[in-house]
Amino acid sequence: MSGVEWIIPILLTVITAATPLVFAGIGELVTEKSGVLNLGVEGMLLVGAVAAFVTATVTGNYFLAVAAGALAGAFLAFLFGVLTLSLMANQVATGLALTLFGVGVSALIGQDFVGIPVDALPKLAVPGLSDIPVLGPVLFGQDALVYLSLFMAALVSWFLYRTKGGLILRAVGDSHNAAHSIGYSVIGIRYLAVMFGGAMSGVGGAYLSLAYTPMWAENMTAGRGWIALALIVFATWKPGLVVVGAYMFGGITILQLHAQAAGLDVPSQILSMLPYLATVVVLVLISKDESRIRKHAPACIGKIFHPAA
Amino acid sequence: MKLKNIASLMGAAVVAGGMLAAGSASAQDKIGFVYVGPIGDHGWTYRHDVARQAVEKAFDGKVKTTFVESVKEGPDSERVIRQMAADGHKLIFTTSFGFMNPTIKVAKQFPDVKFEHATGYKRADNVSTYSARFYEGRYVVGKVAAKMTKSNIIGYVGSFPIPEVVRGINATALGARSVNPNVEIKVAWVNTWYDPGKEGDAAKALIDQGADIIMQHTDSPAPLQVAESRGVYGVGQASDMQHFAPKAQLTAIIDDWNDYYVTRAKAAFDGSWKSQDLWGGFKDGLVALAPYNEAIPADVVAMAEETRKAIMDGSVKPFAGPFNKQDGTEAVAAGAELDDAALLGMDWYVEGIQGKLPK
Prior knowledge:
Chain B: Keywords: Signal. Chain B: This is BMP family ABC transporter substrate-binding protein. Chain B: Pfam families: Bmp (PF02608). Chain B: Residues 30-294 form the ABC transporter substrate-binding protein PnrA-like domain. The complex is a heterodimer of chains A (309) and B (359). Helices cover 72% and strands 0% of the residues of chain A. The relative contact order of chain A is 0.20. Chain A has a single domain (7-296), classed as Orthogonal Bundle (ABC transporter involved in vitamin B12 uptake, BtuC). Chain A has helices at 7-33, 41-59, 62-86, 91-110, 135-140, 144-162, 164-174, 176-181, 186-212, 224-234, 239-261, 268-288, 290-296. With 309 residues, chain A is mostly helical. Chain B folds into 2 domains: 2-132, Rossmann fold, CATH 3.40.50; 134-254 and 287-344, 3-Layer(aba) Sandwich (Rossmann fold), CATH 3.40.50.2300. The longest helix of chain B is centred in the middle third of the chain and has 17 residues, at 163-179. Chain B has 359 residues and is of the alpha/beta class. Chains A and B meet through helix 1, helix 11 and helix 12 of A and strand 7, helix 8 and helix 9 of B.
C-alpha cells in the first residue's frame, strides 16, 4: 500500500459522518442568528429521516424523498414557531418538547416501515475524475447530498454576511426592538429562519435514513441533534467553523474506531465525549473573551419579542 | 342479586371497591410485559414482543396480554410494574436487568402476582429469573466464521465491555480458533447499545482494517448492512436480519423466548408455577440460529449443526479447557472448564483477540 492510500476509507467515512451534522448545524445557525433558540433539532432530524424514508420506499424517488424530509422538518419547525413566536411560549421548554414530540411521532409514522431496507442514495461517478487516485473518490465520488451540504454552508455564509437580507436577519437577532422600530417584521423573519432551520434538519435526517444507514429505526439519530447544537457554540456562530467542527467531530469518532480496530490502546469512552468536552472548552474560552461573543453570538437569542404597540 | 342490591345502597367508595374486585376476578388471565426499548428495535425488545404474541396465540385468545414499551430503568419502571400488578395482571415479565430492584420491591407488595425478571440475580417466592446462554450461539458462529474468512480477521462491534459482551467475544474466539488457529479478532467498542450510524462506522473501520467477517453485540442492523454493501460476511444479532443483508448474513443468533414464556404462562394458570432461576441455551430453546446462508459449504453447515447438537447434549462446552488468556498464559487447563460464576464475571480476553479490554 502506498503512503497515502490508507487515508481514503477514513476520509470517506468521515464525510458521511459529518454531513448530517453540517445540515443540522447550518440550519440551526440561521435560526439562532435570527434570535431564536430551537432545541428541537433532534426531533426535526427524526421526522425528516422518517418522512424521507417512507417517501423513498413508497415512491422510489430520492428527489421526492429528500424534499419530503425537508418539508417534514420545516413543518415541525413551523409548529415551534407558532408556539414560541405567535403564542410566546418559552423557547427552551418548547424546543425540548419538540424533540420529545419528534421522537414519538416519527416512531408512530415509521411503525410499518421498520425492518425494510432501501437502496442507498446513489453516489456520483464522474468519468475520469472519480478515478483519480485518492482525490477522485473523495472529491468526485460522493452522493448529491454531501455536495448540497457544503453548498448550503457556503450559501448561508454568503447570505448572512454579503446580502441585505442577511443583514436584516442578523439585525433581528441582535436587536429585535431596533429592527421592529425601523419597520421590519421581526416575527415574520423569525418564522422564515426557524422554518429554514427545520428544513435543513429534515434534509440532515433524510441523509441519515437514505445514505448513512439506509433504513428506518426508532430514534436512529442517537443524539446527533444535540451534537449539532453544541457545534454552533463550538463554532461561535460562524458558518465556516460549523463545517470545520462537523468534520472534526465526525473525524474524531471515525479515527478512534480505526485506532481501536488497528489494536491501538485508545480510551474509547474519552474519545466519545470529546465533542462535548471541546464545546465546554470553547464556552469557557469565549466567556473569557467578551468581544468574541458580542461579535458573533446573536444578542437576542432566546428572548421573546413583544412588539411595542 | 341481593349482594348487588346491598352494594348499591352503600357508599360510592365501597361500590368502586367491589367492582374492582369483580374486575380482577374475571380478568385473572392477564399477563403483563415491561420492555426497556421500543418494540420496533429489531433486537432485544422486538424478540420479547414476538414471544408475547406467541403466548396470546398459545392460549387462543383466552389470555389477554398487555405491554408497556420504552420504560426507563429505575424509579419510573417501579411505577409501571406496580400499575400492572394493581391492575389484575397475574404474571408480569420485566425484561431488562435494570428492572431488577423495582420488580423485587413490587413483588413484595403483591404476593399473589407472579413475576419473571430477565437477566437479574435477585429472586423471591413469586419472582423467577431467566436469561440465555447466547455465548453457545457465538461459539458455533465463530467456527463458521473461521471457515468462511479469507483474511483470518473477524471484526467485532462491541457495545460496552461488560461480562455478557466479553463472554460473547471470547466464545467467538474459542470457536473460531478451534478450527483455524490463525484467526484473530479485532474489536471496536462504540459505547452504546444503539446508534445505527456509529455501529455502521465501526463496521466500516473494521473492514478497512482487513476484517472480512463482521459480528456485533449492538442492537441495530447497521453493521450487517455495511457488510452487505462492502461485500463481506456478517452475523445477525438477536433476530433474523436476513432481509437487511441477504448476501452477507451467514446466520443470526436469535433470542427465542417463545417456549419459555408459553410454558411459564401455562404454569402460572394451572398452579404449578414455582420460583426458579434458568440460564438456558440451545437445549432449553432460548437460543436459536437463523437459517444458514446458501454460500456456506455443506460440510461447514454440517460442522456447525454437529457443534450445536454437541452443545445441546453437553459433549461440547465452549469454555472447556485447555485455552489461554490473551497474554498466552493458561486460563483453563485441559479437562477443566469455567463455572457459571466465572462466566458471569468474565472481564478478560482469551488468546486471539487484539487490543486491550477497556476497564
